[in-house]
Amino acid sequence: QSQLVESGGRLVAPGESLRLYCTAIGHTFPYYAIGWFRQAPGKEREGVSCMSSTGVVTNYGDSVQGRFTISRDVGTNTAYLQMDGLKPEDTAVYYCALQDTYGSHCTLSASVYDVWGQGTQVTVSS
After folding, report:
1. Max Cα–Cα distance, the chain, nearest Å
2. Would you call 53 exposed, middle or buried from its count of C-beta atoms within 10 A (0-12, 13-18, 19+)?
3. 81 in Cβ contact with 92 (< 8 Å)
4. Backbone torsions φ then ψ of 84, nearest 5 degrees
5. For residue 30, which of 101, 106, 111, 89 has the smallest C-alpha distance?
6. How far apart are CA 117 and CA 58, in angstroms?
7. Is the alpha carbon torsion for 69, 44, 97, 14 positive or negative?
8. pLDDT in tens for each of the 126 residues of the chain?
9. How crowded is the C-beta side of 42, counted as CA atoms within 13 Å?
10. What is each CA distance from 8 to 30, 72, 112, in whole angstroms?
11. With the CA atoms of 3, 112, 87 and 60 taken in that order, what torsion angle do they form, in degrees rounded to the nearest 10?
């Protein structure tokens, strides 16, 4: 069965850190680009970060550049999103996604991703 399972979302105070997890079942990471996206109430889905299938290239949205870090463990097919210096505007449901593509490229455009997880809620509030 093919699926992505996200976890790690919770309520945190501004300035704190949080790590999100995305485990792929039925997919092998070296053949997929990985993307993290988020969607806040009343807003469109936003690209947060991505990593190429080769693991060489990463990209970040302007709003998270320098605060968030994407990584992966090929052995366990798990992707991570380390989020530091969290702000209230980071509050959203966070999704991971896979794009069936091989190479040193990735995009923050949600439309090209093939497989999506169910999302995990991150709330940043004092």
Report:
1. 42
2. buried
3. no
4. -115, 160
5. 101
6. 20
7. positive
8. 668 999 999 999 999 999 999 999 887 778 899 999 999 999 999 999 999 999 999 999 999 999 999 999 999 999 999 999 999 999 999 999 999 999 999 999 999 999 999 999 999 999
9. 1
10. 23, 15, 25
11. 120
């091989």: which residue's tokens? 102
As a residue count, the chain comes to: 126
- Range list of β-strands (E), 1-126: 3-7, 11-12, 18-25, 33-39, 46-51, 58-60, 68-73, 78-83, 92-99, 115-116, 120-124
**pLDDT recorded at residue 28:** 76
